[in-house]
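Pipeline run #58 for the internal structure catalog. This entry was flagged by the ingest filter as a single-chain record with no existing model, so it goes straight to prediction. Upstream metadata was stripped on purpose; only the residue string is passed forward. Reviewer on rotation: M.T. Logging verbosity set to normal.
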Amino acid sequence: MSIFEALESQVRSYSRGWPVVFHRAQGSWLYSEDGKPYLDYFAGAGALNYGHNHPLLKKALIDYIQDDGVTHALDMYTVAKRNFLEAIDEVLLKPRDLEYKVVFPGPGGANAVEAALKLARKITGKEAVINFTNAFHGMTLGALSVTGNSMKRGGAGIPLVHATPMPFDRYFDGDYPDFFYLERLLEDSGSGLNEPAAIIVETVQGEGGINAARVEWLRALSDLCKKHDILLIVDDVQMGCGRTGPFFSFEDAGIKPDIVCLSKSISGYGIPMALTLIRPDLDVWEPGEHNGTFRGISPAFVTGTEALRNFWSDDTLEKSVRAKGERLGSALTEIVEAHPDASLTAKGKGFARGIEFADGDTAGKVCAAAFERGLLMETSGPDGEVAKLLPPLTLTDAEVEQGTEIIRESVAAVLR
């Protein structure tokens, strides 16, 4: 591994927790070059919802490349893009009575967020945006300005302005009514709060510590935005594409955001792609006003189309994620209850789960112990105090049991 330490920047992070060289991957498993298998409860930070090298997606990709399909096309028309947009319309939007135009902002989730913030400000003529405590929206400057983590914000090197954080759901543990502070500031002409163009929210805060918002809170947030004529942006980069059960994480709340940000698993195969979905009346861009070289990666369209048509043409996967997610959650609750003096909390929804520990050091040791036993999972939260689970949605029943048993053993080993 000396070449990595010699040439790669110190900014690398995941490789420090998992110091092996991975060689191949299939389904829910990664294999190091010496052949050791690792059950992947990380799934590319949610970019591999259908596992590694899913055979249906792999075949579609290989066939497209073999036929000399267009790889790079910026925003030109291609067969691959047409097929993808038709799948978006037929599989996602029409069945859910959603009407959005599709912006291809660039290859990553931060690109989707930047486009959303930029468009909201253009439409409203207002600069301010409301974000939430412990939010994470990306590492570029605009996305970072609406992110909560102080370490990540500190890397910007300049003041991060035009964003005001407000308490996320249960931030005060029920001591105050939902949106008590925000609504008061919005209605008081003497509050000093700049009138916001938009509010940006994750329905489940992944990097922030697996904090799942209640559906009542999300509905109240949507109502508040409508009341005050504020655009609602849902960042579904990590929690979309079925991570919480339904394709969009906001579906259970019955809301219809003005703007939706998607990335990570939208290509289905781990190929970079991002989308910003916008209400048709918000499509006020001038041609080329927001662009980028890598906003038309056709192989991502190919695998994304295959993923949508194979996994989302019915509710089979959604039901599976809900059922297995509950089993995963129950197993974590049992682990928590087995250690009543350790101040543990089981958290999450669907296949976004976690155990919150008393401190980040303990959570880190649990993840390290799991790695030694052949399971990959990471930490999240403001102090890294949550052991975070983002397994592939295609996880088998046996892999649910195998993974939770390793977590059980790892927690017990560390707390002993």
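catalog note: The mean pLDDT is 97.
catalog note: The longest helix spans residues 316-337.
status: ready for reviewer M.T.
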